Amino acid sequence: MPNVLSKRTMMIMLTAVAILFPLVFKNMYLLQLLTLVFIWSIAVYGFNIISGYVGYLSLAHAGFFAIGAYGVGLLTTKAELPYWISLFLAVIITALAGALVGVIALRTKSHFFAIYTMCVGVIIYLLIDKWDSLTGGVRGLIGISPPGNIGPITFDSLTSQYYLALSFLILTIFICYRIVHSLLGRTFIAIRNSEELAKTIGISIMKNQLLAFTLSALFAGLSGALYASFIRFIGPQISAITVTFEMLMYLLVGGIGTLAGPLVGTLIVISLTQSLQFLEEYRMLIFGPVVVLLVLYYPRGITGSIETFIRKRKLQKVNLRKEEHEVKRDVGEAG
User: Fold this and answer.
1) Does the UniProt entry include the keyword Transmembrane helix (predicted)?
2) Which of 300, 245, 218, 298 is nearest to 58 (CA)?
3) What is the pTM assigned to this prediction?
4) Are 63 and 247 in contact (CB under 8 A)?
5) 251 near 52, Cβ under 8 Å?
6) Torsion angle in degrees (nearest 10) through CA of 226, 7, 30, 22
7) In whole angstroms, how large is the CA radius of gyration of the chain?
8) C-beta of residue 125 within 8 angstroms of C-beta of residue 239
9) Which pLDDT tens digit goes with each residue over 253-302?
C-alpha cells in the first residue's frame, strides 16, 4: 500500500508541476518544446503497447502517425469538416488501418513481422509522397486548421495548445495504466513471455495481438492528428522509417515495457537533441554513442533500471529482516 500511495503521490505532483509550468515560466520556446514532447509521447505510448508489452516490433508506427496527421489535415482543409469531428474520424481511420494491417502482419513472427511492417510503412510513405492530387506530394499540406473552440475555451495561444496536448497525454497514460493493471495487460505480458504457454492456458493469441496492434495504431493516429494541428504544416517526411526509429529510440532510452518510460525517454532525447542543435549534424557524434552505451548497459532503459534497483533494495531489506528474525529465534531457543 505505501508503494502504491507513493507512486500515486508522485504522479499527482508531476501533473501539478506540468499544469503550473506555463504560469511560472513564460518562455515560449520551452512551452513549444514541451508541447511537442507531450504529442510525441502519445505515439510512443502506443509503440510501447505492441513492442513493450506484447513483444512485437512494429516498424509501421510512423506510417500510422502520418495517417492520423494527414487524416485531420485533409478533412479540415479539403472536406472542410469541423476540427473535432476531423480529429475523431482521423483516429478511427488510423485504428481501422491498423486493424487491417494487423490481420495480415500478425500471421508472421519475430523478424518477419518487423520486415512486413517496415514494408507497410514504406508503402504509406510512397502513397503520401506520390499521390500529389490528394496529399500535395512533396509540397505537403499547408494551413491545417488549429483545434476548434470548445464553448468559451479557445486554442489560439501556445499555452492553450500546451494544455490540450497535456490533457490528451494524461488521458493516454491513464488508459495505458488501466490496461497494464488489468487482465488484458497481464494477457499481453503472458503472450510476450511465451506464446506457447499462453496458448496452453486458453489465451487467444491472435485476438489479443490484433487488439494491441490496433490500440498502438490508434494512439499513433491521435498523436499525428495533434501534431498536424499544432504545426499546421505536414509533409511526407513524417511517415519516413527514420521517424519510427526515433520513436523506438525514445522508448529504449526511457524504458521499454514500463509506464513512465515513453514520457521520460521522449523528454530526455528531444531536450538533449535540441540543446545540441548548435553542433548541427555533428551532434549525433555525441548523442549516438551515449544512446548505444545506455542500451548496452541499461537494456531496460532509465525507468526500467530505476525500477530494478528499487526492487533489489526491497528484496535486500526483506532478506535482512528474515535473517534478523532467524537470529533472534535462534538466540531465544538457545536461551
Assistant:
1) yes
2) 245
3) 0.90
4) no
5) yes
6) 90
7) 22
8) yes
9) 999 999 999 999 999 989 888 887 777 667 777 777 877 887 788 878 88
What is the share, in percent, of the chain residues with pLDDT greater than 90? Answer: 61
Q: Tell me, what amino acid is at 261?
A: G
